[in-house]
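Annotated sample (chain length 191).
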Amino acid sequence: FWKDNVALLNLTDMARMLSSLLLVGAALQLRAEAPAFDEYQVKAAFLYNFAKFVQWPLGTFANSTDPIGICIVGQNPFGSTLENMVQGKKVGDRTFAVRRLADTQQAGQCQILFIGATESKRTRGLLDAVKSTGVLTVGESDDFTALGGIITLRLEGPRVHIQIALDTAEHAKLKVSSKLLNLAEIAKKQP
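Output written by the structure step:
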């Protein structure tokens, strides 16, 4: 009798353990399959898509097939993500060229200029250097638009929010599509 109960108990315990292991394994598999949020993959997608919803002033490009220059000032937080995202893609007849810059002296080849959070001490000077040049400036510091930037990509929880300084874009002679404006918070005008 005692041996039968131990065998039963062991079978019952084993069944419970097996069920638990299967549930834990399924949960781990689901978690492994769920894509992790990658802030800079999302920001790279925004940079690529901004080219579809911004119109640059006449004379920005030498010809109709000049690439759209996306430049990163300072440290590159994207790794190869941005290059991989735009590789082989076009907006109209234009391909993309991703460039890294130490400063804004070479910004003449840029239509989109990303200034990362690591450049916060230099942001105002960098923005002043490209002011009124038809360059779409994009940053990620909370005060980016207040300092004269055009678009801030701000992380709030698991989402990236867009803030656009429309007056600054207009001053740079950039036309921002209403489709993009509808997705964004419009920054208050600076005095």
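Annotation: Strands lie at 54-55, 68-73, 96-101, 112-115, 136-139, 151-156, 159-164, 175-176, 185-186.
Annotation: The two ends are 90 Å apart (CA to CA).
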